[in-house]
UniProtKB/TrEMBL annotation:
InterPro entries: FAD-bd (IPR002938), FAD/NAD-bd_sf (IPR036188), FAD_mOase_fung (IPR050562). The keyword Cytoplasm does not apply. Belongs to the paxM FAD-dependent monooxygenase family. The keyword Membrane applies. Pfam families: FAD_binding_3. Keywords: FAD, Flavoprotein, Membrane, Oxidoreductase, Transmembrane, Transmembrane helix. The chain crosses the membrane at residues 438-455. This is FAD-binding domain-containing protein. PANTHER family: FAD-BINDING DOMAIN-CONTAINING PROTEIN-RELATED, FAD-DEPENDENT MONOOXYGENASE ASQG-RELATED. Residues 10-335 form the FAD-binding domain.
Length: 457
């Protein structure tokens, strides 16, 4: 059998953010040759606010050895602890981490950082005319890279998706429908801020809790951090639904002007938004795209992460499902790489198609839930307000248990052992479930005994 190292499968990853760097770790562990092309010079730039990491994403990051590197950045929340009988979330917390912190942990823990090419903006992808028929990726600075698989982990405006569509159009015009081209829309804008350390405020905000003040058409997610900074995200309903190509980014002046409308809104206790805004040092605004593309792969290109699905920040699932999508793809690439002979292009393409299908299936439900939850949190209508105000508090346990089941059955890397945290938590959960079944059995037996005693035949 050919050694995986020499099987010659080479992967080009476009985009060195959460999805791309996670895939890089996964391929590294699978001994698959890869290169990451990232257009920015500084991969760890402090762009964005906090990212919600959940047990499904963290378990994969633990498998590849990144979890412990996140420790200094994490703010674990207590919100979901009561759900499991033993108080654990599959061995992992629900946690909020600065986006820059996640990138830092992913980048610094990578074994071979020379595989990450910075300042490498991809401009085109073509199938090469060389006899091996590999894909050729060209960057703006005139470099070429060839590989058997090109992965688009390049976000919502990614080039990989556009190049894939171009290749599809060349093969058969109309393969990508107009409906699919327009399937990402924008109803909300997210304003992300980070404050300087403010002890007077962080004294009143518990870092293990997230504060979600909701008002009609606007809601915040506010998180205090262990370093006394506060990250906040304000989700604002826009005046109408925009298509991906229609929405123009807000300038810093536009953001500052808009924030004036919200200064007196209550955040928590005596804290008003004004108190955060006055001490905010970094602010960015990003449209909160929503949508799920149906075509993720074609001709050896596979798109994952934000390039093919977008959820608002409300359920905090975006980054986690992106991590899952990287793991699912890595499982497929690993299976291809350990074959006795190098797979043909047709075999690679068939395997990629099968690989993305599972993630897509899961995402249909997750997207629908995220869509509704976003509107509930911004009290879009009387029904949504009623649901948030009266039904949510009564049903939150059920809602969280559903989420739990998702975590339990979520994607993991099939070629790496499960981390001890996940195994221990699964054992604890199994024991608790067995105990529960025994108690139910015992209860039934006692009930039958009592019946028999009271009503002998
Ligand atoms: C600036 C920014 C801030 C964000 N802030 C938050 C936040 O505060 N909270 C939250 O929950 N989510 C945030 N997100 C979204 C979150 O990061 C993603 O939903 C999730 O992590 C999945 O990301 P991704 O890696 O698939 O895509 P992205 O995070 O969009 O990363 C795509 C990467 O591809 C690179 N790239 C794009 N085009 C090219 C090209 N032609 N050539 C080479 N490289 C290219 C980009 O530079 C980028 O590094 C933010 C995203 C961005 C881009």
């Amino acid at each position: 059998m050919e050694d995986p190292k020499t099987s010659g499968l080479r992967v080009i990853i476009i985009g060195g953010a959460i999805t791309g760097l996670t895939l890089a770790h996964c391929l590294d562990k699978a001994d698959i040759d890869y290169v990451v092309l990232e257009k920015h010079q500084d991969i760890r730039a402090n762009i964005g606010g906090s990212i919600g990491l959940q047990p499904n994403g963290l378990r994969i990051l633990d498998q590849v050895g990144v979890y412990d590197h996140l420790k200094k950045w994490r703010n674990d929340t207590d919100v979901m602890k009561p759900i499991l009988p033993d108080g654990f979330c599959l061995g992992y917390p629900m946690t909020m981490v600065r986006r820059a912190g996640v990138l830092d942990a992913l980048y610094t823990s990578l074994k071979d950082q020379s595989k990450i090419k910075l300042g490498a903006k991809v401009v085109s992808i073509n199938r090469s005319l060389a006899p091996d028929g590999r894909l050729r990726v060209d960057t703006e600075d005139g470099q070429h890279y060839t590989g058997d698989v090109v992965v688009g982990a390049d976000g919502v405006h990614g080039i990989a998706r556009a190049q894939m569509w171009r290749m599809m159009d060349q093969k058969k015009p109309g393969m990508i429908t107009d409906q699919e081209r327009e399937s990402m829309t924008v109803d909300y804008i997210g304003i992300f801020g980070i404050t300087e350390p403010i002890e007077s405020i962080t004294d009143s905000l518990n870092p293990t809790e997230m504060y979600v003040p909701s008002y009609p058409k606007a809601n915040w997610f506010v998180q205090a951090h262990v370093d006394n900074t506060v990250t906040w995200c304000l989700n604002l309903r826009l005046d109408k639904t925009y298509l991906l190509r229609e929405f123009h980014r807000w300038s810093p002046e536009q953001v500052s002007e808009k924030m004036k409308d919200f200064l007196e809104y209550d955040i928590w206790g005596s804290i008003k938004f004004r108190h955060l805004w006055e001490r905010t040092t970094t602010v960015s605004a990003a449209p909160l795209y929503e949508g799920l593309m149906t075509t993720w792969t074609f001709g050896g290109i596979a798109c994952i992460g934000d390039s093919v699905f977008k959820l608002t920040t409300v359920t905090g699932k975006g980054a986690n499902i992106s991590i899952e999508s990287a793991a699912a793809l890595a499982n497929t690439l690993h299976q291809l790489s350990v074959r006795e002979r190098k797979p043909s292009n047709a075999e690679i393409q068939a395997a990629l198609a099968e690989s993305v299908e599972g993630v897509q299936r899961k995402l249909r439900t997750v997207s629908a839930v995220s869509y509704r939850a976003t509107r509930v949190c911004t009290l879009e209508s009387v029904q949504e307000w009623f649901f948030f105000r009266y039904l949510c508090p009564m049903t939150w346990r059920i809602l969280f248990s559903v989420t739990f089941n998702e975590f339990r059955t979520a994607e993991t890397l099939s070629y790496l052992p499960l981390p001890h945290r996940a195994i221990r938590a699964a054992e604890r959960l199994g024991n608790a479930q067995r105990r529960k079944k025994m108690m139910i059995g015992l209860g039934a037996l006692i009930g039958l005994g009592v019946c028999y005693y009271c009503f002998p035949l």
